[in-house]
Amino acid sequence: MDSTAKTHLVGLDRHELAELCRTLGVPDRQVKMRVEQLWNWVYLRGATDFDQLTTLSKDLRATLAENCDLARPEVVTQQISVDGTRKWLIRFAPGIEVETVFIPDEDRGTLCISSQVGCTLNCTFCHTGTQKLVRNLTAREIISQMLIAKDSLEEWPHLTDRDAARKITNIVMMGMGEPLYNFDNVKKALLIISDNEGLSLSKRRITLSTSGVVPEIERCGREIGVMLAISLHGTTDDIRDKLVPLNKKYPIKELLAACKKYPGLSNARRITFEYVMLKDVNDSLADAKRLVKLLSGIPAKINLIPFNPWPGSPYECSDWETIEAFAEVVNRAGYASPVRTPRGRDIMAACGQLKSESEKQRASERRKAANAAAE
What we know:
This protein has helices at residues 14-23, 28-44, 58-67, 139-153, 183-193, 214-223, 237-243, 252-260, 285-294, 320-332, 357-374, and strands spanning 7-8, 68-69, 74-80, 86-93, 96-104, 109-112, 116-117, 135-136, 170-173, 206-210, 227-231, 271-277, 300-306. By secondary structure, it is α/β, with parallel strands linked by helices. The protein folds into two domains: 3-69, DNA polymerase, domain 1 (Orthogonal Bundle), CATH 1.10.150.530; 74-362, Alpha-Beta Barrel (TIM Barrel). The strands form three sheets. It has a nine-stranded mixed sheet with strand order 3-4-5-6-9-10-11-12-13, with helices on one face. The termini are far apart.
């Protein structure tokens, strides 16, 4: 079979693996067992070569190798920050690239995964928002970001002590793109990632961040069941319209009404509200007081995010004293409001800085051409 027509095993759920086995001639009485074996090799052990699948017969391995694919997408670059943050540029096809980031901490390791190549939302403080949407990522492409990180961190059971502490303990869907505009692929990927017989990451350790796609929020809680984060950043519609243009379609009142109805919402399953601190834009004490009032009645945590600059960005980060004063107002109201320490700024891996390298290169070429024309 032509390699371009081969079926990628990564991204297939159990039902699809069963259909594949039947297509390849596996007897019906063996299908369930073969599905569990394939699931184990692909999602628990991270196999990348069919010769590794030693619990399967040589004949079946040969048939799989002829018709299927286990290869990882291309890792174009891996960068490691002075603070230990890692960033991978991953290429799925020519011009189809995303960035994925791993942030290590003493008590956790968080993997920031992308859901789209580019973005349609045009949030004015976000570098990714300056890159036009190319396309949605498939479930395979979303899951592959985790597999590549596990490869790099040598986290697979056959590479390390099975009982050793996980390096990737949390996933945040906060990379490139709006996850709820790629709902079906994100849902499929996260259900596979949270399956307890494979990658086995608890849904309470998976957070999906949305800029406020209101019609899909309740569905996210009901069908996926992960933790929710809201990219809020403004306390009035006037300010949020400028920062997050999606607010013009789904204003703050509608967004917060949807949050209050999020399935499973409780003090143990709080919604995280992300708030990037922009100097003289949204960082006043009046903003802090409005934020507290807006979130009244919603079990919530507020992440205050110092703005991470990028070339050509129109904003500055709030002064540290201003951020501390803002946090104090929120804390006094009873909300946990950690200030997110910027990580990976030196490799453009911090919050709001992600953008695929091919787009950066095209932008650089456009700037050079414009400068040449001006001369």
